[in-house]
């Protein structure tokens, strides 16, 4: 895998869609399912990946950091979830999309409008990765 291509795509995309007030996503996780030696809490990541691999999306909840999520809709290569223990009035959610090599997790704050903007942002990155067979 050409990590320089992935990094350039990520940097260009993230600068437009992640992190600032009003951006579609409050944070994004791009996880390479075959990567070793990641610089994150391996237990947290492995539990999330295990949740996705078990494919019992409607029967279980999952955690990202301290937040617990419940899947609300399932589609061919992605699913949506809402945070069960949010501290924000409008709520929080997650969009999880799978490409051939990556899991993309887009976290957002708010309701349906925020979810729609986050979905578009995550889908754009997924499309760029897929066009390069990543």
UniProtKB/TrEMBL annotation:
Domain of life: Eukaryota
Cleavable signal peptide: none
Database matches in InterPro entries: PFN (IPR048278), PFN_sf (IPR036140)
A Pfam match: Profilin
Gene3D superfamilies, A to Z: Dynein light chain 2a, cytoplasmic (3.30.450.30)
SUPFAM superfamilies with a match to the protein in the record: Profilin (actin-binding protein)
PANTHER family in the cross-refs: OS05G0241400 PROTEIN, PROFILIN
Protein name per the record: Profilin
Organism listed in the record: Rehmannia glutinosa (Chinese foxglove)
């Amino acid at each position: 895998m050409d990590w320089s291509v992935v990094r350039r795509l990520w940097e260009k995309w993230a600068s437009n869609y992640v992190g600032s007030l009003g951006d579609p996503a409050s944070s994004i996780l791009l996880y390479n399912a075959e990567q070793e030696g990641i610089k994150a809490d391996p237990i947290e990541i492995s539990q999330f990946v295990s949740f996705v691999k078990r494919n019992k999306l409607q029967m279980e909840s999952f955690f990202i950091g301290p937040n617990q999520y419940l899947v609300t809709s399932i589609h061919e290569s992605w699913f949506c979830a809402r945070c069960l223990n949010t501290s924000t009035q409008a709520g929080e959610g997650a969009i999880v999309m799978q490409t051939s090599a990556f899991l993309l997790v887009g976290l957002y704050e708010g309701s349906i409008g925020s979810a729609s903007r986050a979905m578009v942002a995550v889908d754009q990155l997924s499309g760029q990765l897929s066009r390069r067979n990543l």
